[in-house]
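Dear colleague,

Following up on Tuesday's group meeting, I ran the structure prediction for the three-component complex that the binding team flagged. I've pasted the input sequences exactly as they went in, so you can double-check that nothing got truncated or mislabelled along the way. The structure tokens for the whole assembly follow below. Feel free to forward this to whoever is handling the docking comparison.

Inputs:
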Amino acid sequence: MISFTWDWSYAIRVMPVLIDGAMVTLKATAAGTVIAVFGGLLFALLRRSGNVFVSKSAGFFVEFIRSTPLLIQIYFVYYILPEFGIRMTPFLTGVISLGLHFSSYMSEVYRAGIDGIPRGQWEAGISLGMTKLRIFKDIIVPQAVPPVIPAMGNYVISMFKETPQLSAITVLEMMQAAKIIGSEEFRYLEPVTMVGVIFLALSLGAAYCIKLLSRKLPMQGIPMK
Amino acid sequence: MLPVSAGIDRLLMPHFLNFLPNLLEGAAVTVAILLLATVLAVIFAFAAGLARLSGRSAVRIPAVMFVEFFRGTSALVQLFWIYFVLPFFGIHIPAMAAAVVALGLNTGAYGAEIVRGAVLAVPKGQYEVATAFNFSPYKRMRYIILPQAIPAMIPAFGNLLIELLKATSLVSLITVGDITYKSILYITNTMKITEIFIVILLVYFFLAQIITFLMKKIELQVTHGLDYGGIQ
Amino acid sequence: MSKPLIQFTDVTKKFGDHIIFDGFNFSVFPQEIVTIIGPSGSGKSTILRMLMTLEKLDGGFIQIEDEYVWHMKKNEKLVPASEAHLRKMRKKISMVFQHFNLFPHMTVLRNVTEAPVHVLKLEKEEARLRAVELLETVGLGDKIDAYPAQLSGGQKQRVGIARALAMQPSILLLDEITSALDPELVGEVLDVIRNVAKEHRHTMLIVTHEMYFAEEIADRICFLEGGAIVEEGAPRDLFYNPREQRTKDFLQSYMSGKAGS
């Protein structure tokens, strides 16, 4: 019978491997976030396009990604890219799928943020003769950002928590590291639990940071002197 | 153009027919997990959601911990924990049960927030009426508050169930034979990538539409006769 | 009689199935101060908004001097205006809005300097000097570093007026600029407009419910109903000797409403 008491020496022994995995997890989250932030903005702008074909296609693409499992999308990109002759590391493949998946959520956040700005702000800019680009850049975006930060931050935290799905395509993130180490001595309790605790601690910590950040930004918009 | 498309037909059809039995087995598993986890999720959502509103710390604090724990870690981490770690405590449950429990609890934690939010949105005046008419807290919740809170919960629960549907794909990683498991197995054997992916994406999309449809029906049923224009 | 500065010719405007204007004609002469009055939904604000290029035309033309606002001349033919052409036409016009539309994330000073710097390409210092002078003229010299959220409605609207004047337009549009203000704050805004009107440098189109004020500063009053000018004339004539029955009815219902308040 295997005892179910916590083995601290074992836990400390496996820590370095878990930390390595955590680094991979964090890198994947960071890279995925970059893709999601810019990809989401791209989708949001495409959906606002005057060209009906463009906006409807972008809309359909976003809806499709949001409605299907991330795991399937990860597998899909992993299997489909080599068919086109593109060879990438599993990490890069995973990051692209992650980023693409969450850019669809981000595009909704951007859209809500931009639509939330009263029409009068556009009209004031137009009446003063500003170009659409300048109105967007100096009037609309600074006002859209503060309400959008909490939503974006929460999606980044979600992305962080979904990184273990990358283990399906052999990315050595935290959870995969725990499973491998656990299988070596056939003792999963400590590694898997510790990974769970790390996830919990980091996501609660990040959620708190987001709350602080959104409190610091004034609701009306990023101040411009 | 025509000969090529005819060729694709000949490639596509047999493989789809080959895949069909696997797909149906996988779909049965996916739907079973979905239904069982939903039942579990609804129970925990109401239990934890209402517990979080309780004045008594002994009731409230465990509920808060439950919700924060299951929302702070991902479904996959919970799945792995139940599948890999519980055996160490002498608890051996089959993968399928682990899947249902993990997903049910995870979804239930998010559902608890929906329940809590909807109950808090019921106007304070309703509580005052209940007091005036001498309702006990239980009766007040059962006959006055909850019936008004439930319509507001339906859309959010609909979205949650679609998230649950997507999460069922994760059980393939603990060897449960759902749609994802069966399709990846089939792909690694036959390398018929694009066709199979298109099929399973359509299957998930179709299941999501069914969920949306059912939730709309439930919403109509629950708001029958009510002055309900959509809460936003 | 000089030539009109602003000319609406045969203008048609629909909102969905609802026709606001059908073959609408309207002229404004240089440095004329015209006030448009009429019931809600008659299209008063729409006239200003079509001129300011905030609403598209469904038919007809609008001209400022000899240039078309919504059209361009291309090889002797008239084609719909490009964005660049619209921007060029907007340079001559400034608008003050009913709901102020100040930029909430910028200081009062920056609200007034933003467009002069980026659109008129003024040097920052020159724009600043112009803005400070204008803000002092409207009585907000001590608020230049404040944010809109810290101002009262009357103060916000005065910033809006300064912001519009900073562009040195030849045409000034005032779209119900006191309608959203608490009664006690209306006076300070009207005082500013009174001073602007006194200089008579701008051509002004004013939509307002403030009848006494309209009588005081307008050269011409137009009564608009159902998408057409029912009657127009000097304030004294229109208010005290209206010729049309509909004008009489409107003034009467307006007066009795006012008497009740």
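Chain B has one domain: 14-222.

Cheers,
M.
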